[in-house]
Amino acid sequence: MNKSMLTRGFTLIELLVVIAIIGILAAVVIGSLNDARSGGQDASVKQSTANIRSQAELWYNSNGYSYANLCTQTSVDGLLSAAIDVVNGTDYAGATHGVSTYVALNTITGAASGRTAACHADETRYVAVAPLASVAEFWCVDSTGASKQSATAPASGTYVCP
To answer: 3-state DSSP call for residue 128?
Structure first.
């Protein structure tokens, strides 16, 4: 009976191997979850900017067939603000509604410079852009029907996606 009690259980090496395997599996799962979160944030930004296209057409039809003042509309302003909130993870305290530029704080490089959501519109055309969360690029929609990823945001006075 004494011998059988000594042979039961796991050795220290076996326990360490199991713990190491569990640690490796956990690291793989956590990495996958981070990728999924970034993909979800990008999908949200893309949807918000796509909704700007719908709002722009509604504005165009109700504003005498003109996109003028589109970017100051509460609906467009709210969609840009929502896109930035997704990228920032929190509300951006410096953003004021009615202004058509918001700065994303959590950029890929860690610097806020150049990572802005913006909207430009004149009588016959518009462009709206928001930074993506997973890459240092932007999602852009414009009045020509373009909806695409872009390395740069359109400059002021430019009404097409770059």
So the answer is: strand
